[in-house]
Amino acid sequence: MLEVIDLHKAYGRHHVLRGVSLGVRPGTIHALVGANGAGKTTLINCLYGLESGFTGTVREAATGRPVREIAGLVPYEPYFYPRLTGREYVEFCLQARGRAVPDLRPWNQLLELPLDQYADEYSAGMKKKLALLAVLVQDFAYLILDEPFNGLDLEANLLLKEILKRLRDRGTGLLLTSHILSALLEVAGEATVLVGGQVQRHYQAAEFGTLEADLLAALHGEKLAQLGALL
Ligand SMILES: Nc1ncnc2c1ncn2[C@@H]1O[C@H](COP(=O)(O)OP(=O)(O)OP(=O)(O)O)[C@@H](O)[C@H]1O
């Protein structure tokens, strides 16, 4: 299991994460839900070792290994060096981990990327797909996907949901963030709601029915009261 225990992170005086704990189990999709600025990306960056200067524990519980050794990350905004083709980017990711480069065609028959074009000239959706391709060909035990549906068209969204469910069924543990709550809750088995850098509540799938109403109340309590006076 990927474990986050009592994670605190501040940027200067801004205390962004305040005692966050959660677990991502193998064979489950765990949704990380929260408003803009709630701390989701910061949590992922701490978990993956892209941020330092935090307190608390982030690790794979069974082995104690650093998360980035056993997990693949699709960041919120994947970055690609100029003049690197899609194919070269995937090869670079694999070589950086000392892994052999497999035949990319089977996965790319699904994702349909122009792998011989420069990746920094791809559209936003194609960039997301390329970052996905780079982790899908690596067979990680865990995947951390920050807004994976962002920028994808309807077809790619449907396909991605199916890919995620099949990975889960094969035992992969997945941590997902998305502002598209319906897509997230459709695939997730559990969810953690972050409000202002704190865990507001952990939900199991059977409790998802109340999640939207709870979020509305937590984020917009005052506005709801105002709306009540209007409508
Ligand atoms: N490098 C940084 N330096 C200073 N403040 C930062 C930095 N990165 C993030 N923050 C602040 O931390 C807070 C949480 O940001 P974060 O990106 O983790 O939120 P988020 O939940 O992922 O939001 P979104 O849904 O908009 O992506 C925000 O107030 C943001 O301004």
Automatic annotation (TrEMBL):
Record carries keyword Secreted: no
Q: Give all residue intervals belonging to the ABC transporter domain.
A: 2-221
What SUPFAM superfamilies does the database record attribute to this sequence?
Answer: P-loop containing nucleoside triphosphate hydrolases
| Entries under InterPro entries matching the protein | AAA+_ATPase, ABC_transporter-like_ATP-bd, ABC_transporter-like_CS, ABC_Transporter_VariousFunc, P-loop_NTPase
Note one Pfam family from the annotation. Answer: ABC_tran
Q: Which GO terms describe its molecular function?
A: ATP binding; ATP hydrolysis activity
Q: What is this protein called?
A: ATP-binding cassette domain-containing protein
The alphabetical list of record keywords is:
ATP-binding, Nucleotide-binding, Transport
Looking at the keywords, is Transport present?
yes
